[in-house]
Amino acid sequence: MSTLQIHPRIELVHIEEVVEIDRVRFEREPSELDLERVAQFPWVYSVVTRDGIVQGYTLVIPVDHFAHNALQLGEMGEEELLLRHIRKPDECSAFYLASVATIPTTNPLTRRQIVGLAQGQVMRSEVETFAIAISREGDSIARELQMTPRKYRGPFSGLAKYVPTLFVQEPFHF
């Protein structure tokens, strides 16, 4: 088996494969805003490939105080997360772990490595990290990351009758 490669930002050659993962995993097409985010902030994505083929990705968005609170309180959906709400990592209020996704045929080891990539991105964050799981798989990933579940009442819809859940990881203290 060949080794995985981690790309610290999405590259043009990977966009269509990431979009296809979203179609299959989340039953959604990218919005114009999604594509603008990719163009302006390619570093919010980390893409994992094997032999040049995308295996999965993480999407960790550093957000401002307004988006941090509005997303958690359910007053804002992800489609309302505008470019002005995205900050550089050292200027953000929190990290929004928007997605950890793999191709459907990913083996358990590769899946775990991609989850480990997400963990490495946020585990020593000096600001809160949060996620809103919309599927049982997302719930499982958040729990693997040792995030704490909280009640969520917002616009996100769950997949396959899953009730969306807010997960929070407190800031790391050195």
What does this structure look like?
It is a single chain. With 174 residues, the protein is of the alpha+beta class. The chain has one domain: 3-Layer(aba) Sandwich (Aminopeptidase), CATH 3.40.630.30. The chain has five helices and seven strands. Strands 1-2-3-4-5-7-6 form a seven-stranded mixed sheet, with helices on both faces. The longest helix is centred in the middle third of the chain and has 15 residues, at 108-122. The protein is globular, with a radius of gyration of 15 Å.
Strand and helix layout:
Layout: E1 4-7, H1 15-26, H2 32-40, E2 45-50, E3 53-63, H3 65-73, E4 94-102, H4 108-122, E5 128-133, H5 136-144, E6 148-150, E7 165-169
Parallel strand pairs: 4-5
Antiparallel strand pairs: 1-2, 2-3, 3-4, 5-7, 6-7
The total domain count is: 1
Mean pLDDT, to the nearest integer, reads 94
Rounded to an integer in angstroms, the radius of gyration calculated over CA atoms is 15 Å
Question: What is the count of β-strands?
Answer: 7
- Can you summarize the main beta sheet? 7 strands, mixed
- What is the CATH third-level topology name? Aminopeptidase
Brief overview, please?
The chain has 174 residues and is α+β, with helices and mostly antiparallel strands. Helices cover 31% and strands 25% of the residues. Helix 4 (108-122) links the parallel strand 4 and strand 5 (128-133).
Name the descriptors.
single chain, 174 residues, alpha+beta, Aminopeptidase, seven-stranded mixed sheet, 31% helix, globular
